[in-house]
TrEMBL record:
Designated name of the protein: (5-formylfuran-3-yl)methyl phosphate synthase
Known function: Catalyzes the formation of 4-(hydroxymethyl)-2-furancarboxaldehyde phosphate (4-HFC-P) from two molecules of glyceraldehyde-3-P (GA-3-P).
Enzyme class: lyase
InterPro entries registered for this protein in UniProt: 4HFCP_synth (IPR007565)
Organism: Beggiatoa alba B18LD
EC id: 4.2.3.153
Coiled-coil intervals: none
Length: 233
């Protein structure tokens, strides 16, 4: 069953996300970019509040592709107690030196999720390198939240290739990027591990507004209905 990842900013939003039925609590600051990082104190507070009721992930920020900087940020976020750490790999070809620099952390048991950006023409042929470096998963997102959602940049054939390729490599996969209710039927057909949401869960569909439980529940129900329809088909 495809899971629902809800991106939250604080304990109050994590509470709303859990009440609405989110499967994964994702920590990021939408006021600070596509993968804006939250303070360690907030990450620790949310992780303690969730208390293993759901997996918790956190982003390390919109960092430049500098291996030492990324290593330090990932190590710090791992120490905050989250289950998964998400790292943005910007541009068409992921920085192999950054990938390699993180291998000691994956060997230490760190569960790292690489984030590729559909609006930056990602090279999906590089998925093998992430598996080789010990990453737990790879997800697709969008860097610019003002210029179309995930499906504006990649069609279902391309997204389907991504899902199947990651599955064949033993990687978790996720699809996100300003997606909402209207995109759920199209994406559920692909059976990704999770779909990630922020704006669709917030007041007036604005990603910088407050997340609400009833919006999470609406998305979850739409996903469940799609699953039932797929079984019937």
């Amino acid at each position: 069953m495809t899971q629902l990842l809800a991106s939250v900013m604080n304990v109050a939003e994590a509470d709303q996300a859990l009440q609405g039925g989110a499967d994964i609590i994702d920590l990021k600051n939408p006021l600070a970019g596509a993968l804006g990082a939250l303070p360690s104190a907030t990450i620790r507070a949310v992780t303690q509040f969730v208390n293993h009721r759901a997996p918790v992930s956190a982003t390390v920020g919109d960092l430049p592709m500098q291996a030492e900087m990324i290593y330090r940020a990932v190590a710090k976020t791992m120490d905050d107690g989250v289950d998964y750490v998400k790292i943005g790999f910007w541009g068409a070809t992921p920085a192999l030196d950054c990938m390699k620099a993180l291998e000691p952390l994956t060997q230490r048991g760190g569960k790292l999720i690489a984030v590729l950006f559909a609006d930056q023409q990602p090279n999906l042929a590089t998925l093998f390198e992430f598996a080789q470096a010990g990453f737990t998963g790879v997800m697709l997102d969008t860097a610019n939240k003002q210029k179309g959602n995930l499906t504006h940049y990649l069609n279902n054939s391309e997204l389907g290739f991504f899902v199947k390729q990651t599955q064949s490599l033993g990687l978790i996969n996720g699809l996100a990027g300003s997606i909402g209710l209207a995109n759920i039927p199209q994406l559920m057909i692909l059976s990704p591990f999770y779909l990630g949401f922020r704006g669709a869960l917030c007041v007036a569909q604005q990603r910088q507004a407050v997340l609400q439980a009833h919006a999470v529940k609406q998305i979850r129900e739409a996903m469940l209905n799609c699953k039932k329809d797929l079984k019937i088909a």
